[in-house]
Amino acid sequence: MIPIVINIVYFMLSLALLLAFIRLTKGPSLPDRVVALELIASIVVGYVGVHAIDTGVSSLLDVAIVIALTAFLAAIGFARFLERGGRRND
Amino acid sequence: MIELIVALLLLAGASFMLLAAVGIVRLPDLPTRMHASTKAGAMGAMFTMGGVAFYFADSVVFARAFAIVVFILITSPVAAHVIGRAGYFMGTSLWDGTVKDELRDNYDPDTHKLRSGYDGSPESVTPPPEPDSSDQR
User: Fold this and answer.
1) Residue B79 in contact with residue A30, Cβ under 8 Å?
2) What span, in angstroms and rounded, lies between the C-alpha atoms of B81 and A90?
3) Where does the chain cross the membrane (chain B) (predicted)?
4) What is the average pLDDT score of chain B?
5) Cβ contact (<8 Å) for A5 and B33?
């Protein structure tokens, strides 16, 4: 039961990654792209968790922690960049 | 039984993240897109981590998964707030069907300060309740 579910979940997460990537490429303004990047990082955290179940390696959760931390810092950095003198209206 | 719980949690998490991705493509402007992606994306990651914790059934793995859940729960609103604030100050256009933008009158685009509307601004919608105590902020 678990392997079938894992395959389904991989498919759904890949679809979500594809949709978020569509928004990342065509997003009209820079904050839209930052939001898409944050969603992509969140999806990747889920991906890593599912992969930890798939392979049985529980150390992969550390990777998930680091990805979540990096995504948060990237979001904060982008927001500061946008607010303090980023390009207006790209 | 454990397998059933894990399968349900993983499917719920993947469904939430897929919904977030659909929302981020389909919704019309920045705040609605953030409304979709932030909440549903964080919820999906938290459900997936719950599935991981139940699957391994180990105290160390449970502690790690719980740490990830708490971390996402703390950082996701902060990041959403900061990005939304930056996007608003950048002047991204809102959706055409937006009914009301109460923030537009109350912030100063130069100093990035927000006013409440009660501290004696001439365009304030409601007059201050007590004009005598206007200098104590």
Assistant:
1) no
2) 21
3) 6-28, 40-57, 63-83
4) 83
5) no
